[in-house]
Amino acid sequence: MKPKKKYAERFVASTPKKSKELDDRQRKVLEIFSRYQFDRILDIGCGDGNYSVLLKKACNAKEVYGIEISEKGVKLARENGVKAFRINIDGSKLPFEDNYFDGVFAGEIIEHLYDTDNFVNEVYRTLKPGGIFVMTTPNLAWWVNRVCLLFGFQPYGMNVSSNFSIGHVYEPKNEFSSFDHIRFFTLKSLQEFLKLHNFQIINIIGVHIRLSGLPLLTSIVNVIDRLLSFRPSLSNCMLLVLKKK
After folding, report:
1. Which uninterrupted H or E stretch holds 25?
2. Which of 12, 61, 78, 94 supports an S-S bond with 73, CB 3.0-4.6 Å?
3. Where in this chain does the record put each Methyltransferase type domain (predicted)?
4. What would the pLDDT profile of 37-71 be if each residue is shown by its tens digit?
């Protein structure tokens, strides 16, 4: 079974229904959306739709649409009131008119795609002039990855196998989604890529991750990661706020 097909059949992103239960990335994205008044928004990779609904409430949107590769995810999102479509966006055209959305969110999506250019072009096309695109993606140059490479270990988020997570300092128990990572970005490369596609970069924010596992090791890493997240180039995840010119 190909990784992309395996991912579609087995993975559905489940998110809490209450904002207080969200992780650092989700809270920061929600805060950004709360600064705007949008009529129509799109959540690419909407999963079960719980988070899509929170985004809708944050910006007082009238309509929220979702794109999801998982059939189960589309069903759950629709039950949550999200106008969800089942689409593999890798190389596909989004089923919306030009200048359709006020805001678009894509959380941890671009790293799973072969055709990143088509993806970003489609987001740009469907955004209204002046519309806002918020995206997040793992940082290849995360400070932990820099240390791992220094000692010859595999960077996190990158796997040599579609079935096994090997070669890392510590192997997390649930790293299934990272098996499907295809593209890898540093902050500099991501900025250059987005500028080539005519997006104006409004803000760049670092996001930290809370690791679990080995008590002493992960607690130390968590403290350092929280401190270094103020430097997006070193953070675990990069959050970018973009504007259609």
Report:
1. helix 24-33
2. 12
3. 42-135
4. 999 999 999 999 999 999 999 999 999 999 999 99
